[in-house]
Design goal:
CATH superfamily of the largest domain: Mur-like, catalytic domain
Helix content: 25-40%
Binding site for ATP: 108-114
Enzyme class: ligase
Number of strands: 22
CATH architecture of the largest domain: 3-Layer(aba) Sandwich
Radius of gyration: 23 Å
Subcellular location: Cytoplasm
Structural class: alpha/beta
Pathway: Cell wall biogenesis; peptidoglycan biosynthesis
Number of domains: 3
Strand order of the largest sheet: 9-10-8-11-12-13-14-15-16
Function: Involved in cell wall formation. Catalyzes the final step in the synthesis of UDP-N-acetylmuramoyl-pentapeptide, the precursor of murein.
Length: 460
């Protein structure tokens, strides 16, 4: 069964189609394109029109373009539109309109992607599930997710992100969710918002896209919870709070041999589940997920059983044994809230020395120095033996640490990675965390490479 016929895509976008083609998928990247995909020639770092010929050679059913690219046969299967991004949005809007299932949208300063994956895994066996790939949550990621959505989808999970004010509401209106969940609100992108209250209002704007009598799933335990509740009330949503209190409540979570058995109350149901991680913040997000799925009409007890199959995505808190050390790879992103959660995960693991390797937290605005310094006072730091760090912002944390906890500081992550033998030893438990642009993942790469050599093995 095709995803889009030429006539359907033309009607959705208002474009002019060449050829009678059928697309089985939608792609924006020739590297991951599959035969039968509609290739969308977006202009980003490179102009997608430069790759149309390659896409067709690799079996694309057709290409969505604003002009016939040089070197491409004028009679090639094309859908020609005035603006490719606007056409992708229209295709996404049409994909959403023809789908009769339930849509769940997720945003938050921390945990969007891992929470989206939790929801996807938890819904296994409850119908046809469609979820955003990777972190496709921006101005092209959301319409792409909707354009890829089969018409017979039962549950769709859409991730919505932002960097600047005014980005979330239009994407939510495009997705038209029945349920919208906010994982948390934290000091991220402060450069653009100035204060956490502004971030909360932007996150709360996700409720503007809710279908009539939609559900707003909000964290109960935040200083800005009332702002989120006000946003939900303004949208006419039914509010479900989750956290240590609320209609969706985490009753118990106790680490046990690398796992986290939990109990939650979701409305009138008691739901037991076990996560394959020790991070308490994951347990809280799981309660929010169960509340969202219950609001969407899913079987919440079955969803709880399925949560045991979920694993944190790469770079987002997965715990692995690596050449004699235990690694928490959380190198994808960082802000004070997520770093605090990462340190708590590190503190909760039993074994050898607890080592934190940290890169700069970016986009924190004028208070970035103070926010880095303040991490020295995080309660979990008491259980951390040594902190290595990289970057000019992390220098403020380095200087604020007591000498016994102060490890190596380097100007760059590469400089830190070059001193790997001085950072960790077999038997250590190691957290690596920082904003993606800090390139602290360089240290993770170095650890993985070293783990493949005989020299980096546990001592007898």
């Amino acid at each position: 069964m095709s995803l889009w016929t030429a006539n359907e895509a033309a009607a959705a976008t208002g474009g002019r189609t060449q050829g009678d083609w059928e697309a089985e998928g939608v792609s924006i990247d020739t590297r991951t394109l599959r035969p039968g995909d509609l290739f969308v020639a977006l202009a980003d770092v490179r102009d997608g029109h430069d790759f149309v010929g390659q896409a067709l050679e690799r079996g694309a059913a057709a290409a969505l373009v604003s002009r016939i690219p040089d070197g491409v046969d004028p009679s090639a299967p094309l859908l020609i539109v005035p603006d490719v991004l606007a056409a992708l949005e229209s295709l996404g809007r049409a994909g959403r309109a023809r789908m009769a299932g339930r849509v769940i949208a997720i945003t938050g300063s921390v945990g969007k992607t891992s929470t989206k994956e939790m929801a996807r895994v938890a819904l296994t066996g409850q119908g046809r599930i469609h979820a955003a790939e990777a972190s496709y949550n921006n101005h092209w990621g959301v319409p792409l997710t909707l354009a890829r959505m089969p018409a017979d989808t039962d549950f769709a999970i859409v991730e919505i992100g932002m960097n600047h004010p005014g980005e979330i509401a239009p994407l939510s209106r495009l997705a038209r969710p029945h349920v919208a969940m906010i994982t948390t609100v934290a000091a991220a992108h402060l450069e653009a918002f100035g204060a956490i209250e502004g971030i909360a209002r932007e996150k709360g704007s996700i409720f503007e896209g809710l279908e009539a009598v939609g559900h707003a799933i909000i964290p109960e335990d935040l200083a800005v919870t009332q702002i989120l509740r006000d946003c939900a009330d303004a949208a006419g949503a039914l509010v479900v709070g989750f956290g240590r209190d609320g209609q969706a409540k985490l009753v118990q979570a106790k680490s046990e041999d690398g796992t986290l058995p939990c109990r939650a109350r979701i409305g009138g149901d008691t739901v037991d589940f076990t996560l394959q991680t020790t991070g308490a913040h994951f347990a809280m997000n799981a309660v929010g997920v169960l509340a969202a799925l219950a609001a969407a009409g899913a079987d919440v007890k079955d969803a709880g059983k399925r949560l045991g199959d979920w694993l944190p995505p790469k770079g987002r808190g997965a715990v692995e044994n690596l050449g004699g050390i235990r690694l928490i790879d959380d190198a994808y992103n960082a802000n004070p809230t997520s770093l605090s959660a990462g340190l708590a995960t590190l503190a909760g693991l039993q074994g050898g020395r607890r080592i934190a390797i940290l890169g700069d937290m970016l986009e924190l605005g004028a208070d970035e120095e103070a926010l880095h310094r303040a991490m020295a006072e995080d309660p979990a730091m008491e259980q951390v033996d040594l902190v290595h760090s990289a970057g000019p912002r992390m220098r403020h944390l380095h200087d604020a640490l007591p000498p016994a906890r102060r490890g190596i500081w380097a100007e760059t992550a590469a400089g830190l990675a070059s001193r790997l033998d001085d950072l960790v030893a077999p038997g250590d438990i190691v957290l690596v965390k920082g904003s993606k642009s800090s390139k602290i993942s360089t240290v993770v790469d170095a650890l993985r490479k070293s783990a493949q050599t005989p020299a980096f093995q546990p001592k007898e």
